[in-house]
Amino acid sequence: MSETPYVFEGSRHDAELERLRALEGVFDSATRKRLLATGLGLGWRCLEVGAGAGSIAKWMGDTVGETGHVLAVDMNPRFLSAIESANLGVQEADIRTARIEPESFDLAHARFVLIHVPDGTEALAAMIRCLKPGGWLVLEEPDFSCSRALAGRPELCCAFRNVHQAIEAMFRQRGMDYAFGARLPALLQDRAFEAMLIENDAAIVPGDSPHAKMMGLSTYQLRDKYVATGLATEEDIERYGTFAADPTCWATYHATISAVGRKPMKGGRV
To answer: For 13-262, CATH number?
Structure first.
């Protein structure tokens, strides 16, 4: 198993919490709708992989009630200790090696997690093993291959392109796929998942929008890694931040591809 550290490992506590809260603000509403579409309700047992700042894990706990249970698995659960919920358990572990009883969950969810694993299919297999036959899998992963600057001053658009070339190179150097989200339909179909629903949201947003602000925060945190690729400079990083804060600059930063499916009752490849 690769020991490549999480790309945001070592980030300052406050900066990382701010980034995670921004991510929650952008994506939580759509995530909740996808989870509810599975029939999620009282008494369900749910697995949240890579719980981040914990908003979805906490919400699922509220949704399944006292008779249900949520297990949050995270390699660094530093932001989960403040959550007070009697039916929420936390396990500090890599999902690939976590000690979880097989076929014990009704639903498993991960958002922007598998893209950070050198072999995301190994983590996916671990999640599937945790699901009961007929259990639901909800995945949400980015595809950075569709990033594109659409409006803005030429020098800012150039910096945007340079940074996104550096994003691709950084993922590649770490043995990861920067377009992992685009693989979700095939990954679930190959494993005979049923009732599949695939969505592709390649939002076009202006600078100073929640999505643009989130990407600006991520870029500042990862600036050293991007500059180390040789494809972006410190000036590019600063101009990218200006682009992400300017309402006259429009872009698609990435697509978010979601896949919802039901584990087959019998058979199927993990």
So the answer is: 3.40.50.150
